[in-house]
Structure formats: C-alpha cells, structure tokens
C-alpha cells in the first residue's frame, strides 16, 4: 500500500517538474494546474492507499487532462494560442510548413520531440521543417484540426487524448499502435529516444498510463493550393 501511495506522489510531482522545463508555453500548463489551493487539495485528497489492482485501474485526476487557459472544441481538442501570427491564415487544402514539440503531458511530461535550436537559415528552404496538406490525413486529427485558423508565424498549443492522436488497432486500451514508425501518419519524432518515449505511452495497455499528449506547433509558411509560396508577412 505504501508503494502505491509513493508511486502516485512521484507521478504528480514529476509531471509538474517535467512540464516546468524552459520550453515555449509548456511551463504555464504545468504550473497553472497546481496553482490554486483547491487544485492542491484535490491532489492531496487523491493520495489514498488503494489495493494495487484498484490503483492501476484509476485514471489521473480530471484537471491533469483538462488544462486551464485552453479552449475545448466540439471534438474534445484543447487549444491555446501562445503567439499570434501576421501572415496567411491556414485553411483546409493549404500546404503547411511547421515545426513542433511534443510531450506526453499525461505521463511525466516527457518530451518525444523537442526543439534544440533554430531550424533552417533560409525561410524558403523548408527541408528542415515538417509539412503536410490540410485535409489529406497525413497527420493526426488533433494537428489537422488544430492548425486551421493559425496565421503564418503563429504558435498554438494542442492538448488531446488518444481519440485524436496516433492511429491504433482497435480499442486504444489494447495498446496496439497501427503505425509504430509513424511514417504514414505524423508528426514523426526524429530521434530514437523520442520515438521510444511516445510509443511507450501509446502501447501501454489498459488504464495504467494516461495517453494525453501536448503539441506546441509553430506555422512557418502557408501555401495555397496551386499558388505561389507565401513570403514572410503576407496576408
């Protein structure tokens, strides 16, 4: 029983600590979750001693997956604009060039894609960036929906559960990832450690691991179908 209580203490503390790392907008998600006395009381009240079989079946508190300051859409996607852009606004059918960061916010806030430095020296040379066409299913539904409406140069945060995330075979609780390499449906982590961190969470069975993810997405360029490539500041 004491091991179960200690395990939950470590889980909540590590989640807050990991998300307070100096990445754009991520610190505010973690700190605001535990800022108010009511939320701290909720965490404390959750630290009850349970039999092991009961503990592994309990989902984390709701405020871990419902983030303050975010707007929830009809699909369940939570969005927050960190920076407003000034260029073209993303619309369905557009080709979007973007960079991103990803965190397993429901499980210790571990990064599975983190920006180490500024990518690309020339705005029009996009080989260092990811890109997709909105509406073609090339990326997960959360990113497909979440990028629409963002202006070129804007940064938006997306928080979502497995129903809007990477494709699974059957019930997500079975932990069978449809495309473990994430070649067919992105975004794809670029490092082995990032891929392992993401797939560990996705492949976890039952309710042992909260599979809520956080993406920080920056729109670098927006290209209209069949049109010329956008230039910085274009509207």
Provide a descriptive summary of the structure in words:
A hairpin with a 5-residue loop joins strand 1 (71-72) and strand 2 (78-83). The chain is an alpha+beta fold and 235 residues long. The protein has helices spanning 2-19, 26-33, 37-46, 52-55, 62-65, 141-146, 192-202; strands at residues 71-72, 78-83, 95-104, 110-113, 130-133, 155-160, 213-223. The termini are far apart. Helix 1 crosses helix 2 (26-33). Strands 1, 2, 3, 4, 5, 6 and 7 form a seven-stranded antiparallel β-sheet that branches. It contains seven helices and seven strands; from the N terminus they run H-H-H-H-H-E-E-E-E-E-H-E-H-E. Residues 1-34, 39-59 and 117-127 have low confidence and may be disordered.
Keywords:
seven-stranded antiparallel beta sheet; 26% helix; 7 strands; 7 helices; single chain; alpha+beta; globular
Strand content: 15-25%
Order of helices and strands: HHHHHEEEEEHEHE
Shape: globular
- The tally of helices reads 7
Helix content: 25-40%
What is the average of the pLDDT values?
74
Please describe the biggest sheet, giving its number of strands, its sense, and whether it closes into a barrel. 7 strands, antiparallel
- Spatial extent as radius of gyration: 19 Å
Count of distinct strands: 7
- N- to C-terminal separation? 59 Å
Structural class: alpha+beta
Low-confidence stretches: 1-34, 39-59, 117-127
